[in-house]
């Protein structure tokens, strides 16, 4: 990254850690656009805090970046650990598990749930027509993440993927991974996912639905088969939404700010 961008307060690094891939880019947080290409790496099989931290640091080095960092993680971010992260190593659930990230990426770091990052990107850069009432954001990838947006604010750490259906947690039955591993056709996936949408609709009565994650790139093939009364659309920033939301979180600390107390 060139020196002129290093000290530009409009540019922040966003990192999106998934169960399959870790992605990063520098974002112009004034408008949510990417200022660099996205760099990626496979999530290591071990997916421990240390191994993920090393990859995140390598991606930052590729982008030649120095400055505040937002990092989206697939679980519930607490003061010193990542809870309920089934697609990463169980060691993330241990006290002090976030220390490798903080030690590697520095104290100028904000951590937040990956679906919350998508929700934050929608609030800041998405269509204003979705700003009223309750919007449910669902991310379909290795698992299923969720975020709740209400009247221009987001409610953190909504883990709706853990809701149970006939085949167990919907996160296991209707995620993008379930399609690839079990060779589900779009109608077969929709038969599993429809009860999930129905369950959330009965619980929360949302005004809008937004879907994101890898599966949303095939919106017409899959989500056109889902029947809901309220509007459903793809995240405004598509598969970059998590990166952009993570970067944006550094401006107003919409996440867990790293501190020496977490070590």
Taken in chain order, the helices and strands follow as HEEEEHEEEHEHEEEEEHHHEHEHE
Average residue-wise pLDDT: 88
Rg from C-alpha positions? 18 Å
Q: Give the tally of β-strands.
A: 16
Integer tally of domains: 2
What's the CATH class of the largest domain, please?
Answer: Alpha Beta
The number of helical runs is 9
The structural class is: alpha/beta
General shape? globular
Strand content: 25-35%
Query: What is the CATH topology descriptor of the largest domain?
Result: Nucleotidyltransferase, domain 5
Distance between the termini: 29 Å
**DSSP helix fraction:** 25-40%
Low-confidence stretches: 1-5, 258-263
Largest sheet data: 7 strands, mixed
Q: Which architecture of the largest domain per CATH? A: 2-Layer Sandwich
CATH superfamily of the largest domain, by name, is ATPase, nucleotide binding domain
Verbal overview:
The chain is of the alpha/beta class and 263 residues long. The protein has 2 domains: 3-116 and 241-262, Nucleotidyltransferase, domain 5 (2-Layer Sandwich), CATH 3.30.420.40; 127-235, ATPase, nucleotide binding domain (Nucleotidyltransferase, domain 5, 2-Layer Sandwich), CATH 3.30.420. It has helices at 3-6, 49-62, 99-105, 114-125, 170-173, 176-182, 186-204, 219-222, 241-252, and strands at residues 11-17, 21-28, 33-34, 39-42, 69-73, 76-77, 82-83, 109-113, 134-140, 144-150, 153-155, 164-165, 168-169, 208-212, 232-234, 256-257.
């Amino acid at each position: 990254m060139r020196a002129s961008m290093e000290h530009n307060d409009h540019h922040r690094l966003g990192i999106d850690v998934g169960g399959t891939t870790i992605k990063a880019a520098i974002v112009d947080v004034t408008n949510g656009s990417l200022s660099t290409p996205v760099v990626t790496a496979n999530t290591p099989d071990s997916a421990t805090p240390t191994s993920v931290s090393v990859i995140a640091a390598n991606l930052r080095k590729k982008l030649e970046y120095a400055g505040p960092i937002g990092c989206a993680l697939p679980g519930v971010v607490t003061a010193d650990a990542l809870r309920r992260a089934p697609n990463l190593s169980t060691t993330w659930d241990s006290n002090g598990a976030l220390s490798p990230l903080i030690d590697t990426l520095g104290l100028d770091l904000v951590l937040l749930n990956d679906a919350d990052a998508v929700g934050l990107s929608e609030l800041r850069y998405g269509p204003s027509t979705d700003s009223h009432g309750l919007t449910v954001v669902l991310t379909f990838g290795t698992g299923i993440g969720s975020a709740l947006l209400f009247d221009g604010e987001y409610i953190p750490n909504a883990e709706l993927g853990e809701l149970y259906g006939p085949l167990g947690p919907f996160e296991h039955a209707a995620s993008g991974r379930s399609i690839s591993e079990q060779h589900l056709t779009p109608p077969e996936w929709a038969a599993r996912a429809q009860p999930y949408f129905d369950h959330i609709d009965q619980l929360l009565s949302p005004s809008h639905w937004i879907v994101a994650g890898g599966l949303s790139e095939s919106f017409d093939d899959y989500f056109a088969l889902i029947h809901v009364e309220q509007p459903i659309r793809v995240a405004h920033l598509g598969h970059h939404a998590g990166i952009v939301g993570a970067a944006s979180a550094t401006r107003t600390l919409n996440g867990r700010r790293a501190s020496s107390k977490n070590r």
